[in-house]
């Protein structure tokens, strides 16, 4: 079930979005899509997010500023992202260069549509985005994501991209190694190991993503992206034993 | 130097060794809170004074290993500093002992008696402790007066003094073994002590002058940068002035055209004007106004410096600042990290020809993110798991130390986080500073 929720303070614009979404639902009779909320009150949206079932898929269509309200679109988006794994956010707002940058890094939205481009274009892009979300939710293999936050920046990475975590010399931090780079954040290997069954604590300061191990030979663990990690034979056999069990 | 009778000699000797430990306690407090220290001190006072009787000068040599190995104090202190401390205390004791000997002998107290021993011990302790306190105070006052401070400098001065003191020790030991004359020794001591003092003053003055020169150089550099900035502003103003002038001319010609009522041509001209490059290019992103939102002078200076440098290298740099950025107590480490990241971004971009660096500063109540993004060629993607190794570089020898030192900084501070990734031909570095401690 794909839930779509809209929050926009302008009466005309919100009914326009509702039209687009309803049309989209009609065009896809085979899929389970529902327009579960369309509200002009950001606080109503907030309580909806809080009560939403984290297991389900959601698309939130949000404005950034709401007239007469201190609640901002970014707060709603941050709340929603923290609340579930399958959450997609589409911002539709007036174009401001800075907000795109800041939103891109804070909540990594699916899209940022500019109202200034005209409502025809909004309609076109929004339908396209919904189409993409539907394709992704329908595909049988759902991608597992890993989420961490640094200050107000929330980052989601594909679980398959993660190779390993290691402890930092700073006791409050861990370092994540992915296909694309490294990231430090506040956590502990113990907490991370408990969070997923695919993470195996090889020794005190190393946690590897066993689902991403390609081979173990000689002195190295090789990950699927060809990254090699040198370990002694005792630790390598521990990983082997864990993999075969 | 003066052979005393058995019991008295040991008595004086034991008190001399104990004196060194008491002086050490003055320099490094809390030394006597450790039981092991008490045992080592007690044993070494007894054993060394007995040994001294058998082998003249043995205690002087044996004190070094006892000091550096057996006594537990300031475990983080490097051994060279411990040696310097020992030498300083040693020379203090030696000077006071020699003075005591001179005074007691000139008073005519008979050598070898109990009276003699007590007079020696009391005078020696008073002199040694007094000397240490005064010299310490004088040192601090002198350094304050010439406006010098800093651990490195102090260590350096102490080391150079220590070397000289080592020489004195050599003379003292030789004199003891050769049973040389007390007076001759005293004269040598005074000469060396004077030499030490002058050497020290000379060195300190030289160091002060050197530091002042460096400070002045820094200021000149800063002034030069401000100069560049002012020139930049003037250039922009000049551009704006020319543009205004052109624009007025064009409006005038339009008004002439409209009087002739040639609607088609008028329309054409207006459209051409609207598509004018000067109007359509986004001046907002090519000028550094955004930089003024950074109120932290250190951070602003660093970003501005690279803004100018990238312009010179034909790389366009875009700076975006979300809210005003105030100075924080982490300005120095942040600026250091930014310098390294910007330098890396610029070096990577300069080799690409036409490329872009984007610097975004996002801040809200809970954190500040500095995001630096630059283009990389897809076949020149660095090995992201190795970029933090101090030896790793894509730029040839002499480079590559940058990210390793950023890593050290982020490890030292609980609330500085570093993230780097290379995806879709873009290298992005995130430097996040969170509010939590």
From TrEMBL, chain A:
Required for high-level post-exponential phase expression of a series of secreted proteins. This is Response regulator. Coiled coil: none annotated. The keyword Phosphoprotein applies. It comes from the Bacteria. The keyword Zinc does not apply. It comes from Lactiplantibacillus xiangfangensis. Keywords: Activator, Cytoplasm, Phosphoprotein, Two-component regulatory system. Residues 146-219 form the HTH LytTR-type domain. Residues 3-130 form the Response regulatory domain. The modification 4-aspartylphosphate is found at residue 63. One of its GO terms (molecular function) is phosphorelay response regulator activity.
From TrEMBL, chain B:
Keywords: Coiled coil, Membrane, Transmembrane, Transmembrane helix. SUPFAM superfamilies: ATPase domain of HSP90 chaperone/DNA topoisomerase II/histidine kinase. It comes from the Bacteria. The keyword Transmembrane helix applies. It holds the Pfam family HATPase_c_5. One of its GO terms (molecular function) is identical protein binding. The chain crosses the membrane at residues 12-32, 38-71, 83-105, 111-132, 153-178, 184-211. Residues 329-435 form the Histidine kinase/HSP90-like ATPase domain. Residues 206-250 form a coiled coil. InterPro entries: HATPase_C_sf (IPR036890), HATPase_dom (IPR003594), NatK-like_C (IPR032834). The keyword Coiled coil applies. This is Histidine kinase/HSP90-like ATPase domain-containing protein. The lineage of its organism: Bacteria, Bacillati, Bacillota, Bacilli, Lactobacillales.
């Amino acid at each position: 079930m794909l839930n779509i929720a809209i929050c926009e303070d302008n009466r005309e614009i919100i009914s326009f979005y509702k039209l687009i979404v309803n049309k989209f639902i009609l065009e896809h009779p085979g899929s389970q899509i529902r327009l579960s909320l369309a509200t002009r009150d950001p606080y109503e949206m907030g309580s909806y997010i809080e009560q939403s079932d984290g297991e389900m898929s959601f698309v939130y269509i949000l404005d950034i500023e709401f007239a007469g309200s201190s609640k901002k679109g970014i707060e709603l988006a941050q709340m929603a992202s923290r609340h579930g794994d399958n959450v997609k956010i589409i911002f539709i707002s007036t174009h401001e260069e800075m907000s795109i940058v800041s939103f891109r890094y804070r909540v990594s939205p699916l899209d940022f549509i500019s109202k200034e481009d005209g409502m025809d274009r909004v309609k076109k892009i929004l339908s396209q985005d919904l189409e993409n979300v539907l394709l992704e939710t329908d595909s049988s293999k759902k991608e597992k994501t890993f989420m961490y936050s640094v200050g107000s920046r929330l980052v989601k990475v594909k679980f398959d991209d993660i190779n390993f975590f290691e402890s930092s010399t700073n006791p409050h931090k861990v370092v994540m190694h992915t296909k694309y780079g490294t990231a430090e954040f506040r956590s502990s290997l113990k907490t991370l190991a408990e969070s997923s069954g695919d993470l195996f604590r090889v020794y005190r300061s190393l946690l590897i993503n066993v689902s991403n191990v390609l081979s173990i030979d000689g002195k190295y663990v090789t990950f699927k992206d060809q990254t090699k990690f040198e370990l002694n034979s005792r630790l390598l056999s521990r990983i082997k034993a864990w993999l075969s069990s | 130097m003066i052979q005393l009778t058995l019991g008295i000699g040991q008595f004086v000797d034991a008190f001399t060794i104990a004196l060194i430990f008491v002086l050490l306690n003055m320099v490094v407090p809390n030394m006597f809170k450790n039981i092991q220290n008490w045992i080592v001190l007690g044993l070494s006072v007894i054993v060394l004074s007995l040994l001294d009787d058998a082998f003249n000068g043995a205690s002087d040599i044996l004190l070094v290993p006892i000091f550096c190995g057996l006594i537990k104090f300031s475990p983080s202190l490097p051994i060279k500093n411990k040696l310097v401390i020992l030498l300083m205390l040693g020379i203090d004791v030696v000077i006071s002992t020699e003075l005591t000997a001179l005074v007691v002998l000139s008073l005519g107290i008979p050598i070898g008696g109990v009276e003699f021993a007590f007079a020696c011990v009391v005078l020696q302790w008073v002199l040694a402790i007094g000397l240490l306190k005064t010299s310490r105070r004088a040192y601090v006052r002198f350094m304050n007066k010439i406006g010098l401070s800093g651990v490195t400098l102090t260590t350096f001065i102490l080391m150079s003094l220590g070397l000289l003191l080592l020489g004195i020790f050599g003379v003292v030991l030789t004199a003891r073994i050769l049973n040389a004359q007390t007076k001759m020794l005293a004269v040598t001591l005074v000469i060396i002590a004077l030499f030490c003092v002058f050497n020290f003053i000379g060195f300190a003055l030289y160091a002060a002058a050197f530091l002042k020169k460096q400070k002045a150089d820094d200021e000149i550099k800063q002034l030069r940068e401000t100069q560049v900035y002012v020139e930049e502003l003037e250039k922009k103003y000049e551009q704006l002035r020319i543009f205004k002038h052109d624009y007025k001319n064009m409006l005038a010609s339009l008004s002439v055209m409209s009087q002739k009522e040639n609607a088609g041509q008028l329309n054409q001209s207006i459209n051409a004007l609207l598509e004018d490059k000067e109007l359509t290019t986004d001046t907002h992103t090519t000028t550094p106004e955004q930089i003024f939102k950074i109120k932290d002078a250190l951070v602003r200076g660093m970003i501005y410096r690279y803004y100018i440098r990238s312009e010179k290298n034909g790389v366009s740099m875009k700076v975006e600042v979300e809210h005003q950025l105030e100075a924080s107590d982490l300005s120095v480490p942040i600026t250091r990290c930014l310098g390294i990241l910007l330098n890396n971004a610029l070096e990577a971009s300069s080799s690409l020809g036409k490329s872009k660096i984007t610097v975004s500063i996002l801040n809200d109540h809970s954190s500040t993110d500095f995001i630096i993004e630059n283009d990389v060629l897809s076949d020149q993607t660095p090995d992201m798991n190795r970029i933090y190794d101090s030896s790793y570089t894509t730029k040839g020898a002499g480079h590559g130390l940058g990210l390793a030192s950023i890593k050290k900084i982020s490890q030292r501070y609980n609330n500085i986080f570093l993230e780097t990734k290379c995806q879709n031909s873009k290298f992005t570095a995130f430097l996040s500073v969170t509010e939590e401690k």
